[in-house]
Amino acid sequence: IGKNAQKYILAMYNKINSSNVIYIVSHDSNENIAQLKNKYIEKDTQIYVCKNNTCLAPFTSIDKVMTLNF
Question: Which is nearest to 53 in space by CA: 28, 27, 35?
Answer without folding.
Answer: 35
